[in-house]
Amino acid sequence: MNIDNPKDCVGYRVITKSVERTADHATKISQNILMLKKPLDKAILDKIIDMSEMSIDVFESAIDSLFKQDYDKGDETIKNAKRIIKMENELNISMDNSGIEERTLLKLIIESISRTAEYASDIGEVVLNLHIEKTLTRN
User: Fold this and answer.
1) Architecture of the structural domain at 8-138
2) Residue 71 near residue 128 (C-beta atoms within 8 A)
3) Which residue, 61, 92, 118, 121, has fewest beta-carbon neighbours within 10 Å?
4) Residue 70 backbone zone (phi > 0: left; psi -120 to 50: alpha; other: beta)
């Protein structure tokens, strides 16, 4: 399986769990969207779409850093995930005019998007741990 060190198995276990949880959140997002009863405010919808696209990009970057064994890309993934968490806070503030049921569903959707970025960050951290020695020896 080309695993150089048995301790790497723990890292791959974390990655597997992060991918599985990301899929679970994708399901939750779909379910919560279907429960919305009226169209969303365009400004809020645009912000959610931006956050979602960025979160997907960060997750794909994390997976790419894993397959390419790219320490720097893993580090970049972690930094970008933090920006998404900041976006979550800003979105929660801008939803104050929504009804309580709509606001609850939107918060669940936004939190699932944010969790995707957090799982990507977890993968990025594993990539750093798996490849730190190689990175230190090249410098």
Assistant:
1) Up-down Bundle (1.20)
2) yes
3) 92
4) beta
Question: Looking at per-residue confidence, does 6 or 68 come out higher?
Answer: 68
pLDDT tens digits, residue range 82-114?
A: 999 888 888 877 776 667 888 899 999 999 999
CA nearest to 52, candidates 122, 130, 114: 114
Q: Give the burial class of 100: count Cβ atoms within 10 A of its Cβ; 0-12 exposed, 13-18 middle, 19 or more buried.
A: exposed
Residue showing tokens 């929504």:
98
Burial 32-64 (b: 16+ CB within 10 A, else e): beeeeeeebeeebeebbeebbebbbebbebbbe
The set of residues, in sequence order, having a beta carbon less than 8 Å from that of 53 and lying 6+ positions away, is none
Rounded to whole angstroms, the Cα distance separating 9 from 5 reads 8
Residue pair 39/51 in contact (Cβ under 8 Å)? The answer is: no
Q: How far apart are CA 123 and CA 104, in angstroms?
A: 29
